């Protein structure tokens, strides 16, 4: 079977921890485009809203680059959540002490492709 390249969208430096977004990404990996967007719309997590935006952008990229594509033939071929940089913040504690808070960021990559031969 011949591999096709797929259509990609990336969102970087999103202020949400990768560990909170990865379980959401696991739910839509391999699903049809329309089914994945319906799943994400029903979820209350912040990560679901962010992934939905990137998924919508990847779908738009696919339809703009290949006019013969139909939205019903698209599926989520790859989705991965990478760690972004971390911001270090100081959290004041009692007795003049402090702790370091790590504000974690994520990079979300979604690749949609055309499902052939169903």
The appropriate CATH architecture is Alpha-Beta Complex
- N-to-C SSE string, H for helix and E for strand: EHHHEE
Q: For the largest beta sheet, what order do the strands appear in spatially?
A: 1-3-2
> What is the number of helices?
3
Taking the alpha carbons of the first and last residues, their distance comes to: 13 Å
Class per helix and strand makeup? alpha+beta
Helices and strands, with pairings:
Layout lengths: L6 E8 L3 H11 L4 H10 L3 H20 L8 E19 L5 E17 L4
Antiparallel strand pairs: 1-3, 2-3
Helix pairs in contact: 1-3, 2-3
Write up this protein:
- The chain is an alpha+beta fold.
- The protein has one domain (7-114): Ribosomal Protein L22, Chain A.
- The chain contains three helices and three strands.
- The chain has helices at residues 18-28, 33-42, 46-65, and strands spanning 7-14, 74-92, 98-114.
- Strand 2 (74-92) and strand 3 form a beta hairpin.
- Helix 1 (18-28) crosses helix 3 (46-65) and helix 2 (33-42) packs antiparallel against helix 3 (46-65).
- It is elongated.
- The mean pLDDT is 92.
Short description:
By secondary structure, this protein is of the alpha+beta class.
List its traits.
35% helix, Ribosomal Protein L22, Chain A, 3 helices, 118 residues, alpha+beta, single chain, 37% strand, three-stranded antiparallel sheet
